[in-house]
Here is the input.
Amino acid sequence: MLKSITIKNFKSIADDTIELGRVNVFIGENGCGKSNILEAVGFASVAETYTTIDAEILYTKGIRVAKPSLMISSFAGTTKKPTIEINFKFDDNNTIDCSLHPNNPNDINSKWKKLKKNTSIDLFIKNFLAQNTDKTKSFDEQLNQKELRQIINSSEFKQLLEQEIIEEMKKRQDFSFTQEYNILNNYLIYLLNTQSLRGIPEFINSRNGIHGENLGSMIAELDIEEMKQLKSYTYFIGWLDDFFIDKNDELKYKGHKLSQSKSLLFFRDKLMLKKDNIFSSENVNEGVLHILFYLTLLISKKTPKFFAIDNIETALNPHLCRYLMTEICKLAKEHDKQLLITTHNPAILDGLNLFDDEIRLFEVRRNDNGHTKTRRINLKPDVKNEMGEKYKLSELWTRGFLGAISQNF
Amino acid sequence: MRVAIIAEGAEDQIVIQNILRAFKIDSSDILFVKPSLQKDASSPDDATIGTFQGVKKACMGIEDYRYYFEMAFLFFAADCVIVHLDTAEIEQQDFPFQKPTKQNNENYSKELRKLVIDLINSWLDNKYTETNYFMLLLLRK
Here is the structure.
Protein backbone atom coordinates (compact mmCIF):
# COMPACT_ATOMS: atom_id res chain seq x y z
CA MET A 1 0.00 0.00 0.00
CA LEU A 2 1.12 3.55 -0.69
CA LYS A 3 2.16 5.17 2.59
CA SER A 4 3.00 8.70 1.59
CA ILE A 5 3.32 10.93 -1.41
CA THR A 6 5.39 14.09 -1.83
CA ILE A 7 4.44 16.36 -4.71
CA LYS A 8 6.52 19.29 -5.91
CA ASN A 9 5.78 21.80 -8.68
CA PHE A 10 2.60 20.17 -9.98
CA LYS A 11 -0.20 22.61 -10.80
CA SER A 12 -1.22 24.35 -7.52
CA ILE A 13 0.98 22.07 -5.40
CA ALA A 14 4.34 23.72 -4.79
CA ASP A 15 5.50 21.27 -2.15
CA ASP A 16 3.29 19.03 -0.08
CA THR A 17 3.53 15.65 1.61
CA ILE A 18 0.50 13.52 2.41
CA GLU A 19 0.61 10.54 4.77
CA LEU A 20 -1.98 8.17 3.37
CA GLY A 21 -4.25 5.55 4.88
CA ARG A 22 -6.34 3.00 3.03
CA VAL A 23 -9.36 5.23 2.41
CA ASN A 24 -8.41 8.88 2.04
CA VAL A 25 -11.06 11.57 1.67
CA PHE A 26 -10.10 15.10 0.61
CA ILE A 27 -12.37 18.08 1.30
CA GLY A 28 -11.88 21.74 0.55
CA GLU A 29 -13.36 24.68 -1.26
CA ASN A 30 -13.65 24.70 -5.04
CA GLY A 31 -10.30 25.23 -6.71
CA CYS A 32 -8.21 24.39 -3.63
CA GLY A 33 -6.34 21.60 -5.45
CA LYS A 34 -8.06 18.38 -4.37
CA SER A 35 -8.19 16.96 -7.89
CA ASN A 36 -4.59 18.06 -8.48
CA ILE A 37 -3.51 15.63 -5.75
CA LEU A 38 -5.27 12.76 -7.52
CA GLU A 39 -3.74 13.84 -10.83
CA ALA A 40 -0.21 14.08 -9.45
CA VAL A 41 -0.44 10.42 -8.49
CA GLY A 42 -1.77 9.64 -11.97
CA PHE A 43 1.04 11.57 -13.63
CA ALA A 44 3.68 9.64 -11.72
CA SER A 45 1.92 6.34 -12.45
CA VAL A 46 2.11 7.12 -16.17
CA ALA A 47 5.79 7.95 -15.82
CA GLU A 48 6.47 4.59 -14.21
CA THR A 49 4.48 2.68 -16.83
CA TYR A 50 5.25 4.31 -20.19
CA THR A 51 8.55 5.25 -21.74
CA THR A 52 6.95 8.22 -23.53
CA ILE A 53 4.29 10.30 -21.83
CA ASP A 54 1.90 12.22 -24.03
CA ALA A 55 -1.39 14.07 -23.62
CA GLU A 56 -3.52 11.12 -24.74
CA ILE A 57 -2.09 8.73 -22.16
CA LEU A 58 -2.56 11.32 -19.41
CA TYR A 59 -6.16 11.89 -20.49
CA THR A 60 -7.02 8.18 -20.37
CA LYS A 61 -5.80 8.07 -16.75
CA GLY A 62 -8.26 10.85 -15.86
CA ILE A 63 -5.78 13.74 -15.81
CA ARG A 64 -6.89 17.16 -17.10
CA VAL A 65 -4.21 18.06 -19.62
CA ALA A 66 -3.03 21.65 -20.08
CA LYS A 67 0.09 22.95 -21.76
CA PRO A 68 3.14 21.96 -19.69
CA SER A 69 3.86 25.54 -18.65
CA LEU A 70 0.53 25.42 -16.78
CA MET A 71 0.98 21.90 -15.42
CA ILE A 72 4.27 22.88 -13.78
CA SER A 73 3.48 25.16 -10.83
CA SER A 74 3.33 28.82 -11.73
CA PHE A 75 3.05 31.27 -8.82
CA ALA A 76 3.34 35.05 -8.98
CA GLY A 77 6.67 36.35 -7.71
CA THR A 78 8.50 33.03 -7.90
CA THR A 79 10.84 31.45 -10.41
CA LYS A 80 9.30 28.57 -12.28
CA LYS A 81 10.95 25.20 -11.75
CA PRO A 82 11.75 23.11 -14.83
CA THR A 83 10.44 19.77 -13.57
CA ILE A 84 7.60 18.16 -11.66
CA GLU A 85 8.85 15.99 -8.79
CA ILE A 86 6.79 13.20 -7.26
CA ASN A 87 7.98 10.79 -4.60
CA PHE A 88 6.14 7.71 -3.34
CA LYS A 89 6.84 5.74 -0.19
CA PHE A 90 5.25 2.32 0.27
CA ASP A 91 4.50 0.47 3.47
CA ASP A 92 7.41 -1.92 2.83
CA ASN A 93 9.65 1.19 2.78
CA ASN A 94 10.31 0.96 -0.97
CA THR A 95 10.34 4.32 -2.69
CA ILE A 96 9.79 5.59 -6.22
CA ASP A 97 11.05 8.99 -7.35
CA CYS A 98 9.77 10.67 -10.50
CA SER A 99 11.21 13.78 -12.06
CA LEU A 100 9.23 14.84 -15.12
CA HIS A 101 10.26 17.34 -17.75
CA PRO A 102 8.32 18.46 -20.87
CA ASN A 103 9.94 18.54 -24.31
CA ASN A 104 8.14 21.80 -25.12
CA PRO A 105 6.59 23.74 -22.22
CA ASN A 106 4.29 25.71 -24.53
CA ASP A 107 2.84 22.85 -26.57
CA ILE A 108 -0.26 21.18 -25.10
CA ASN A 109 0.61 18.04 -27.09
CA SER A 110 4.18 18.00 -25.83
CA LYS A 111 5.64 14.72 -24.75
CA TRP A 112 7.12 14.48 -21.27
CA LYS A 113 10.21 12.61 -20.27
CA LYS A 114 11.16 11.10 -16.98
CA LEU A 115 14.57 12.40 -16.02
CA LYS A 116 16.87 9.61 -15.02
CA LYS A 117 18.50 9.71 -11.66
CA ASN A 118 22.10 8.56 -11.46
CA THR A 119 22.15 4.80 -11.29
CA SER A 120 25.10 3.00 -9.73
CA ILE A 121 26.54 2.36 -13.19
CA ASP A 122 26.32 6.08 -14.01
CA LEU A 123 28.23 6.87 -10.83
CA PHE A 124 30.79 4.17 -11.58
CA ILE A 125 31.55 5.69 -14.99
CA LYS A 126 31.60 9.24 -13.61
CA ASN A 127 34.05 8.29 -10.89
CA PHE A 128 36.23 6.44 -13.34
CA LEU A 129 36.38 9.42 -15.73
CA ALA A 130 37.07 11.85 -12.89
CA GLN A 131 40.06 9.78 -11.81
CA ASN A 132 41.48 8.90 -15.21
CA THR A 133 40.89 11.82 -17.58
CA ASP A 134 42.27 15.31 -17.87
CA LYS A 135 39.75 17.98 -18.90
CA THR A 136 42.51 20.36 -20.09
CA LYS A 137 43.28 17.96 -22.96
CA SER A 138 41.19 17.54 -26.11
CA PHE A 139 38.71 14.69 -26.44
CA ASP A 140 40.99 12.77 -28.88
CA GLU A 141 44.03 13.26 -26.68
CA GLN A 142 42.15 11.95 -23.65
CA LEU A 143 40.77 9.01 -25.60
CA ASN A 144 44.17 7.98 -26.89
CA GLN A 145 46.00 8.21 -23.61
CA LYS A 146 48.01 5.07 -23.14
CA GLU A 147 47.18 4.82 -19.41
CA LEU A 148 43.43 5.10 -20.02
CA ARG A 149 43.54 2.42 -22.71
CA GLN A 150 45.46 0.11 -20.40
CA ILE A 151 42.87 0.49 -17.65
CA ILE A 152 39.90 -0.03 -19.99
CA ASN A 153 41.48 -3.18 -21.41
CA SER A 154 42.47 -4.60 -18.03
CA SER A 155 40.65 -7.66 -16.77
CA GLU A 156 40.03 -5.93 -13.36
CA PHE A 157 38.15 -3.09 -15.04
CA LYS A 158 36.09 -5.46 -17.18
CA GLN A 159 35.19 -7.47 -14.10
CA LEU A 160 34.09 -4.36 -12.18
CA LEU A 161 32.03 -3.14 -15.12
CA GLU A 162 30.36 -6.52 -15.47
CA GLN A 163 29.44 -6.50 -11.77
CA GLU A 164 27.89 -3.05 -12.05
CA ILE A 165 25.87 -4.06 -15.12
CA ILE A 166 24.54 -7.19 -13.41
CA GLU A 167 23.58 -5.21 -10.29
CA GLU A 168 21.71 -2.63 -12.36
CA MET A 169 19.90 -5.34 -14.33
CA LYS A 170 18.82 -7.01 -11.10
CA LYS A 171 17.39 -3.78 -9.72
CA ARG A 172 15.39 -3.13 -12.88
CA GLN A 173 14.15 -6.69 -13.08
CA ASP A 174 13.10 -6.70 -9.43
CA PHE A 175 11.24 -3.41 -9.72
CA SER A 176 9.23 -4.34 -12.80
CA PHE A 177 7.74 -7.28 -10.91
CA THR A 178 7.15 -5.58 -7.61
CA GLN A 179 3.74 -5.02 -6.15
CA GLU A 180 4.48 -1.28 -6.08
CA TYR A 181 4.91 -1.24 -9.84
CA ASN A 182 1.60 -3.02 -10.36
CA ILE A 183 -0.22 -0.76 -7.89
CA LEU A 184 0.88 2.37 -9.72
CA ASN A 185 0.58 0.89 -13.19
CA ASN A 186 -3.18 0.37 -12.89
CA TYR A 187 -4.05 3.59 -11.05
CA LEU A 188 -7.01 5.49 -12.54
CA ILE A 189 -9.03 8.56 -11.60
CA TYR A 190 -12.76 7.89 -11.93
CA LEU A 191 -15.05 10.84 -12.55
CA LEU A 192 -18.45 9.39 -13.36
CA ASN A 193 -20.75 10.78 -16.01
CA THR A 194 -24.36 9.59 -16.04
CA GLN A 195 -24.56 9.41 -19.82
CA SER A 196 -21.40 7.29 -19.91
CA LEU A 197 -22.88 4.98 -17.26
CA ARG A 198 -25.98 4.65 -19.43
CA GLY A 199 -23.76 3.51 -22.30
CA ILE A 200 -24.65 6.36 -24.66
CA PRO A 201 -22.08 6.13 -27.48
CA GLU A 202 -21.27 9.86 -27.63
CA PHE A 203 -20.18 9.61 -23.99
CA ILE A 204 -18.01 6.53 -24.34
CA ASN A 205 -14.72 8.39 -24.39
CA SER A 206 -12.31 6.31 -22.42
CA ARG A 207 -11.20 2.72 -22.92
CA ASN A 208 -10.34 2.61 -19.22
CA GLY A 209 -13.94 3.37 -18.32
CA ILE A 210 -13.03 6.29 -16.06
CA HIS A 211 -16.41 7.94 -16.68
CA GLY A 212 -18.34 4.73 -16.00
CA GLU A 213 -18.46 3.52 -19.60
CA ASN A 214 -17.75 -0.10 -18.73
CA LEU A 215 -20.25 -0.64 -15.91
CA GLY A 216 -22.10 -3.42 -17.72
CA SER A 217 -18.97 -5.34 -18.63
CA MET A 218 -17.48 -4.83 -15.14
CA ILE A 219 -20.58 -6.47 -13.66
CA ALA A 220 -20.63 -9.19 -16.34
CA GLU A 221 -17.05 -10.14 -15.44
CA LEU A 222 -17.72 -10.64 -11.73
CA ASP A 223 -17.35 -14.20 -10.45
CA ILE A 224 -20.19 -15.92 -8.55
CA GLU A 225 -19.05 -14.79 -5.09
CA GLU A 226 -18.43 -11.23 -6.22
CA MET A 227 -21.83 -11.06 -7.90
CA LYS A 228 -23.45 -12.43 -4.75
CA GLN A 229 -21.79 -9.73 -2.69
CA LEU A 230 -22.81 -6.99 -5.15
CA LYS A 231 -26.41 -8.20 -5.15
CA SER A 232 -26.45 -8.11 -1.36
CA TYR A 233 -26.46 -4.33 -1.72
CA THR A 234 -29.73 -4.03 -3.65
CA TYR A 235 -31.25 -2.70 -0.40
CA PHE A 236 -29.44 0.59 -1.10
CA ILE A 237 -32.22 1.43 -3.60
CA GLY A 238 -35.73 1.04 -2.21
CA TRP A 239 -37.45 0.02 -5.45
CA LEU A 240 -34.70 -2.28 -6.75
CA ASP A 241 -35.55 -5.97 -6.92
CA ASP A 242 -32.64 -7.14 -9.06
CA PHE A 243 -30.28 -6.24 -11.88
CA PHE A 244 -28.92 -8.43 -14.67
CA ILE A 245 -26.97 -8.51 -17.92
CA ASP A 246 -28.95 -9.15 -21.09
CA LYS A 247 -26.04 -10.90 -22.84
CA ASN A 248 -27.66 -11.15 -26.26
CA ASP A 249 -29.22 -7.69 -26.11
CA GLU A 250 -32.64 -9.28 -26.75
CA LEU A 251 -34.59 -6.81 -24.58
CA LYS A 252 -33.69 -4.07 -27.04
CA TYR A 253 -35.99 -5.76 -29.53
CA LYS A 254 -38.80 -5.95 -26.98
CA GLY A 255 -38.97 -2.18 -26.58
CA HIS A 256 -36.98 -1.90 -23.35
CA LYS A 257 -34.55 0.63 -24.72
CA LEU A 258 -33.90 2.82 -27.70
CA SER A 259 -31.10 1.56 -29.88
CA GLN A 260 -28.78 4.29 -28.58
CA SER A 261 -27.38 2.69 -25.44
CA LYS A 262 -24.60 0.11 -25.70
CA SER A 263 -25.23 -1.02 -22.13
CA LEU A 264 -26.59 -4.53 -21.59
CA LEU A 265 -27.40 -3.83 -17.94
CA PHE A 266 -31.07 -4.02 -16.90
CA PHE A 267 -32.98 -3.47 -13.66
CA ARG A 268 -36.11 -5.02 -12.21
CA ASP A 269 -38.46 -2.87 -10.08
CA LYS A 270 -40.13 -4.65 -7.16
CA LEU A 271 -43.00 -2.17 -6.82
CA MET A 272 -44.33 -2.41 -10.38
CA LEU A 273 -46.45 -4.98 -12.21
CA LYS A 274 -44.32 -8.06 -12.87
CA LYS A 275 -45.07 -8.09 -16.57
CA ASP A 276 -43.85 -4.52 -16.91
CA ASN A 277 -41.08 -3.89 -14.44
CA ILE A 278 -37.79 -3.96 -16.38
CA PHE A 279 -35.69 -0.85 -17.02
CA SER A 280 -32.61 -0.40 -19.17
CA SER A 281 -29.58 1.63 -18.06
CA GLU A 282 -30.90 4.32 -20.38
CA ASN A 283 -34.06 4.74 -18.31
CA VAL A 284 -33.07 3.88 -14.77
CA ASN A 285 -32.36 6.68 -12.25
CA GLU A 286 -28.79 7.88 -12.20
CA GLY A 287 -28.15 7.16 -8.50
CA VAL A 288 -28.40 3.39 -8.91
CA LEU A 289 -25.83 3.47 -11.72
CA HIS A 290 -23.36 5.41 -9.59
CA ILE A 291 -23.87 3.12 -6.58
CA LEU A 292 -23.41 -0.06 -8.61
CA PHE A 293 -20.30 1.34 -10.23
CA TYR A 294 -18.59 2.17 -6.94
CA LEU A 295 -19.52 -1.13 -5.31
CA THR A 296 -18.33 -3.11 -8.35
CA LEU A 297 -15.08 -1.15 -8.34
CA LEU A 298 -14.49 -2.22 -4.74
CA ILE A 299 -15.64 -5.82 -5.06
CA SER A 300 -14.10 -6.87 -8.39
CA LYS A 301 -10.65 -8.46 -8.59
CA LYS A 302 -10.27 -7.07 -12.10
CA THR A 303 -10.45 -3.41 -11.13
CA PRO A 304 -7.36 -1.49 -9.90
CA LYS A 305 -6.05 -2.07 -6.39
CA PHE A 306 -5.35 1.63 -6.08
CA PHE A 307 -7.59 4.27 -7.61
CA ALA A 308 -9.20 7.66 -7.11
CA ILE A 309 -12.79 8.84 -7.26
CA ASP A 310 -13.34 12.51 -7.97
CA ASN A 311 -16.58 13.97 -6.56
CA ILE A 312 -17.96 10.71 -5.23
CA GLU A 313 -21.26 12.29 -4.13
CA THR A 314 -22.54 13.09 -7.62
CA ALA A 315 -26.22 12.07 -8.02
CA LEU A 316 -26.46 10.57 -4.53
CA ASN A 317 -28.84 11.37 -1.69
CA PRO A 318 -26.99 12.63 1.43
CA HIS A 319 -28.31 9.88 3.69
CA LEU A 320 -27.29 7.26 1.16
CA CYS A 321 -23.83 8.88 0.89
CA ARG A 322 -23.25 8.22 4.56
CA TYR A 323 -24.06 4.49 4.31
CA LEU A 324 -22.34 4.01 0.97
CA MET A 325 -19.16 5.50 2.42
CA THR A 326 -19.24 3.14 5.39
CA GLU A 327 -19.59 0.18 3.03
CA ILE A 328 -16.80 1.48 0.79
CA CYS A 329 -14.47 1.58 3.82
CA LYS A 330 -15.47 -1.97 4.75
CA LEU A 331 -15.06 -3.30 1.20
CA ALA A 332 -11.71 -1.54 0.75
CA LYS A 333 -10.33 -3.53 3.67
CA GLU A 334 -11.96 -6.80 2.63
CA HIS A 335 -10.74 -6.58 -0.97
CA ASP A 336 -7.41 -4.88 -0.23
CA LYS A 337 -8.06 -1.67 -2.18
CA GLN A 338 -6.62 1.77 -1.54
CA LEU A 339 -8.62 4.86 -2.49
CA LEU A 340 -8.26 8.60 -2.86
CA ILE A 341 -11.65 10.33 -2.82
CA THR A 342 -12.75 13.93 -3.18
CA THR A 343 -16.15 15.20 -2.12
CA HIS A 344 -18.22 18.32 -1.57
CA ASN A 345 -20.98 16.48 0.27
CA PRO A 346 -20.76 16.67 4.09
CA ALA A 347 -22.82 13.47 4.47
CA ILE A 348 -19.88 11.46 3.06
CA LEU A 349 -17.95 12.37 6.22
CA ASP A 350 -20.55 10.77 8.48
CA GLY A 351 -19.66 7.42 6.91
CA LEU A 352 -16.00 7.69 8.01
CA ASN A 353 -14.71 6.29 11.27
CA LEU A 354 -11.79 8.62 11.90
CA PHE A 355 -10.73 6.67 14.97
CA ASP A 356 -9.64 3.93 12.54
CA ASP A 357 -6.13 4.87 11.38
CA GLU A 358 -6.79 3.34 7.94
CA ILE A 359 -9.57 5.85 7.30
CA ARG A 360 -8.28 9.38 6.84
CA LEU A 361 -9.83 12.77 6.20
CA PHE A 362 -7.82 15.68 4.83
CA GLU A 363 -8.54 19.38 4.65
CA VAL A 364 -7.15 20.82 1.41
CA ARG A 365 -6.62 24.58 1.21
CA ARG A 366 -4.65 27.25 -0.62
CA ASN A 367 -2.31 29.30 1.56
CA ASP A 368 -1.61 33.02 1.12
CA ASN A 369 0.91 32.21 -1.63
CA GLY A 370 -1.68 30.15 -3.51
CA HIS A 371 0.03 26.85 -2.69
CA THR A 372 -2.17 23.83 -2.07
CA LYS A 373 -1.60 22.37 1.39
CA THR A 374 -3.22 19.38 3.06
CA ARG A 375 -3.89 18.80 6.75
CA ARG A 376 -5.05 15.50 8.18
CA ILE A 377 -8.13 16.02 10.35
CA ASN A 378 -7.68 14.02 13.52
CA LEU A 379 -10.33 13.61 16.18
CA LYS A 380 -9.26 13.95 19.78
CA PRO A 381 -9.88 10.83 21.90
CA ASP A 382 -12.01 12.97 24.27
CA VAL A 383 -14.83 13.16 21.73
CA LYS A 384 -14.98 9.45 20.85
CA ASN A 385 -18.07 8.73 22.91
CA GLU A 386 -19.86 11.84 21.71
CA MET A 387 -19.43 11.48 17.95
CA GLY A 388 -22.76 11.03 16.21
CA GLU A 389 -24.70 12.14 19.26
CA LYS A 390 -23.27 15.51 20.13
CA TYR A 391 -20.97 16.03 17.17
CA LYS A 392 -21.49 15.05 13.55
CA LEU A 393 -18.66 15.48 11.07
CA SER A 394 -21.11 16.71 8.42
CA GLU A 395 -22.35 19.49 10.70
CA LEU A 396 -18.87 20.36 11.87
CA TRP A 397 -17.84 20.83 8.26
CA THR A 398 -20.82 22.95 7.26
CA ARG A 399 -20.41 25.03 10.42
CA GLY A 400 -16.78 25.56 9.40
CA PHE A 401 -15.02 23.85 12.29
CA LEU A 402 -13.11 21.42 10.08
CA GLY A 403 -11.83 24.22 7.83
CA ALA A 404 -12.25 23.29 4.15
CA ILE A 405 -14.79 26.06 3.51
CA SER A 406 -14.64 29.31 1.63
CA GLN A 407 -13.90 32.30 3.90
CA ASN A 408 -15.04 34.81 1.31
CA PHE A 409 -18.62 35.16 2.51
CA MET B 1 -0.39 28.30 14.49
CA ARG B 2 -4.15 27.93 13.95
CA VAL B 3 -6.39 30.71 15.18
CA ALA B 4 -10.15 31.11 15.53
CA ILE B 5 -11.54 34.67 15.64
CA ILE B 6 -14.73 35.91 17.29
CA ALA B 7 -15.10 39.56 16.35
CA GLU B 8 -17.81 42.17 16.32
CA GLY B 9 -17.92 42.53 12.57
CA ALA B 10 -16.48 41.27 9.29
CA GLU B 11 -14.23 44.34 8.95
CA ASP B 12 -12.74 43.63 12.39
CA GLN B 13 -12.01 40.07 11.32
CA ILE B 14 -10.08 41.32 8.31
CA VAL B 15 -8.08 43.77 10.44
CA ILE B 16 -7.16 40.99 12.88
CA GLN B 17 -6.33 38.66 9.99
CA ASN B 18 -3.89 41.23 8.61
CA ILE B 19 -2.29 41.73 12.02
CA LEU B 20 -1.84 37.95 12.29
CA ARG B 21 -0.30 37.88 8.84
CA ALA B 22 2.49 40.09 10.21
CA PHE B 23 3.12 37.28 12.70
CA LYS B 24 3.45 34.84 9.76
CA ILE B 25 0.08 33.23 10.41
CA ASP B 26 -1.38 32.12 7.10
CA SER B 27 -5.01 33.02 6.30
CA SER B 28 -5.76 29.35 5.68
CA ASP B 29 -4.98 28.69 9.36
CA ILE B 30 -7.58 31.21 10.52
CA LEU B 31 -11.24 30.46 11.17
CA PHE B 32 -13.75 33.32 11.27
CA VAL B 33 -16.20 32.01 13.86
CA LYS B 34 -18.34 35.06 14.30
CA PRO B 35 -20.35 36.42 12.61
CA SER B 36 -19.83 34.33 9.47
CA LEU B 37 -20.63 30.85 10.81
CA GLN B 38 -23.66 31.66 12.90
CA LYS B 39 -26.34 32.48 10.42
CA ASP B 40 -27.97 30.96 7.39
CA ALA B 41 -30.53 32.30 4.93
CA SER B 42 -33.46 31.16 7.08
CA SER B 43 -32.14 32.79 10.26
CA PRO B 44 -34.12 35.70 11.69
CA ASP B 45 -32.53 39.15 11.34
CA ASP B 46 -29.99 39.63 14.09
CA ALA B 47 -29.67 43.14 15.41
CA THR B 48 -26.65 42.18 17.51
CA ILE B 49 -24.33 41.73 14.52
CA GLY B 50 -21.54 44.27 14.74
CA THR B 51 -22.01 44.82 18.47
CA PHE B 52 -20.54 43.56 21.70
CA GLN B 53 -23.80 41.67 22.30
CA GLY B 54 -23.03 39.70 19.15
CA VAL B 55 -19.61 38.74 20.52
CA LYS B 56 -21.24 37.78 23.81
CA LYS B 57 -23.68 35.57 21.95
CA ALA B 58 -20.83 33.89 20.06
CA CYS B 59 -18.88 33.27 23.27
CA MET B 60 -21.87 31.88 25.09
CA GLY B 61 -23.00 29.82 22.10
CA ILE B 62 -26.37 28.84 20.73
CA GLU B 63 -26.96 25.67 22.73
CA ASP B 64 -24.12 25.59 25.16
CA TYR B 65 -22.10 28.49 26.55
CA ARG B 66 -18.87 26.82 25.42
CA TYR B 67 -20.04 25.79 21.97
CA TYR B 68 -17.87 27.89 19.64
CA PHE B 69 -14.81 27.73 21.87
CA GLU B 70 -15.11 23.99 22.23
CA MET B 71 -15.57 23.51 18.50
CA ALA B 72 -12.61 25.71 17.64
CA PHE B 73 -10.26 23.83 19.94
CA LEU B 74 -11.59 20.32 19.41
CA PHE B 75 -12.16 20.22 15.68
CA PHE B 76 -10.49 23.17 13.99
CA ALA B 77 -7.42 22.30 16.10
CA ALA B 78 -7.07 25.97 17.01
CA ASP B 79 -4.10 26.89 19.15
CA CYS B 80 -5.92 29.99 20.33
CA VAL B 81 -9.20 31.84 20.02
CA ILE B 82 -9.10 35.60 19.61
CA VAL B 83 -12.08 37.49 21.04
CA HIS B 84 -12.44 41.04 19.81
CA LEU B 85 -14.28 43.68 21.82
CA ASP B 86 -14.26 47.33 20.86
CA THR B 87 -14.02 49.13 24.21
CA ALA B 88 -14.31 52.49 22.52
CA GLU B 89 -18.00 51.63 22.17
CA ILE B 90 -18.66 50.95 25.86
CA GLU B 91 -20.98 53.88 26.40
CA GLN B 92 -22.99 53.20 23.25
CA GLN B 93 -23.26 49.46 23.65
CA ASP B 94 -24.56 48.81 27.09
CA PHE B 95 -21.44 47.06 28.46
CA PRO B 96 -22.05 45.65 31.96
CA PHE B 97 -19.31 47.87 33.44
CA GLN B 98 -18.21 51.48 33.41
CA LYS B 99 -14.89 52.52 31.93
CA PRO B 100 -12.24 53.32 34.57
CA THR B 101 -11.37 56.98 34.99
CA LYS B 102 -8.85 57.90 32.35
CA GLN B 103 -7.68 61.29 33.58
CA ASN B 104 -4.53 61.13 35.75
CA ASN B 105 -4.88 57.35 35.96
CA GLU B 106 -1.68 55.65 34.87
CA ASN B 107 -3.31 52.25 35.38
CA TYR B 108 -6.22 53.03 33.06
CA SER B 109 -5.25 50.44 30.41
CA LYS B 110 -4.52 47.73 32.95
CA GLU B 111 -7.83 48.30 34.75
CA LEU B 112 -9.80 48.30 31.51
CA ARG B 113 -7.99 45.17 30.35
CA LYS B 114 -8.87 43.39 33.60
CA LEU B 115 -12.53 44.36 33.31
CA VAL B 116 -12.72 42.94 29.78
CA ILE B 117 -10.89 39.75 30.76
CA ASP B 118 -13.26 39.24 33.69
CA LEU B 119 -16.23 39.87 31.42
CA ILE B 120 -15.12 37.30 28.84
CA ASN B 121 -14.27 34.79 31.57
CA SER B 122 -17.73 35.21 33.04
CA TRP B 123 -19.26 34.49 29.64
CA LEU B 124 -17.14 31.33 29.42
CA ASP B 125 -17.92 30.27 32.98
CA ASN B 126 -14.18 30.69 33.80
CA LYS B 127 -13.40 27.50 31.85
CA TYR B 128 -10.37 28.87 30.01
CA THR B 129 -8.80 31.15 32.63
CA GLU B 130 -5.90 28.80 33.38
CA THR B 131 -4.84 28.01 29.86
CA ASN B 132 -5.36 31.10 27.76
CA TYR B 133 -4.05 34.60 27.54
CA PHE B 134 -6.08 37.47 26.20
CA MET B 135 -4.80 39.88 23.64
CA LEU B 136 -6.82 43.06 23.53
CA LEU B 137 -7.13 45.20 20.45
CA LEU B 138 -8.02 48.68 21.56
CA LEU B 139 -9.33 50.43 18.50
CA ARG B 140 -9.33 54.21 18.60
CA LYS B 141 -12.25 56.12 17.18
